[in-house]
Amino acid sequence: MSGVPAIDLLKRLRTLVLELPQQLRLAYCLARDPRTPAPLKAALGASLALILNPAIDLPAWVPVVGQMDTIALTLTVIRTFNAQAPRELRKEIEAQIKAGESRLDLDLRLGTQAAVGLTARIRSLTAQRRAKPGPEPPSAPPPWYRSPAPAGGQASQPAGEPGSTGAPPQVSEEHSI
Asked: Phi first, then psi: what are they for 101, rounded to 5°?
């Protein structure tokens, strides 16, 4: 008979996991609706903040049980919030959810459109950057940059002598020591 409590526990967990998205959707829409009382919204926010606070995480290190208590607490808070909302408002939002016209549906559509637009813009900019050639490297240094010394090190003729490529360095009296 020791297997029966484990099966019951898994059934409860399954119910929690399946019900949570529905309850969250309703709570999201109720929280976004201006007709929902502000104290009720504040209680929801405070409760969720308390649940998600890692300093108060009870047995989270225990597999399944640690997550189940968080899911159960979250569902309890969400259910309570949803039940405390005005009945007419709750029924109206539930009908909008069924029709796919809730605030969550609208927000998801807007978010998806924004993400698609942003992705297209990033792709466009990336394609422009790849298509635009960079500056060509100079084939030879400009004449004013040439050194009288060859690449090996020593100049064949000192600067300032006939046949040299550079002018002799000029030192003014201000800079002499």
From this structure: -120, 25
Contacts of 27 (CB under 8 A, 6+ apart): 44, 78, 81, 82
135-144 tens-digit pLDDT? 776 677 777 7
This prediction's pTM? 0.49
What angle (nearest 5°) sits at the alpha carbon of residue 91, between those of residues 89 and 97?
A: 105
Sign (positive or negative) of CA dihedral 42, 43, 46, 52: negative
The domain spans of the chain are 9-99, 102-132
Place of tokens 């993400």: 115
Q: What is the DSSP string of 146-168?
A: --SS-TTSS-SS-TTSTT-SSPP
Taking the CA atoms of 32, 38, 42 and 48 in sequence, report the sign of the dihedral they define.
negative
Phi-psi sector, 170: left (phi>0), alpha (psi -120 to 50), beta = beta
